[in-house]
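User: Before I run my own analysis I want an independent prediction to cross-check against. Here's the chain; please return only the structure tokens and, at the end, one sentence I can use as a sanity check.
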Amino acid sequence: MIPVCRIEDLPEGESVRIEIDDATPAIAVFHTDGALYAVDDTCSHQDASLSEGWVEGCFVECPLHAALFDLRTGAPVCLPARRPVRTHEVSVVDGMIHVRPAVPEEEAVA
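Assistant: Structure tokens:
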């Protein structure tokens, strides 16, 4: 599990981008609708940071072309995005938010 920040440092409606290492894509962590969600930070349509997007309910809108993603599943809800973004497990331990990065598909299959 990767520590992100304390829960009080990520207010409702806000997001934070975390970078783990050069081999792991950046992850965006969102606090919305009373829950925490983590997805790949890069929009699957084009290179834009979803942590800089607009959050409404359980959805984030890409700031570049307005692709909308469901934070619960990573699925795109509208064009231009056609591919989902990966979701990651989020937990809170002693007030600290942690993310467990999902295993990339190519590693999960091998």
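Sanity check: The two ends are 22 Å apart (CA to CA).
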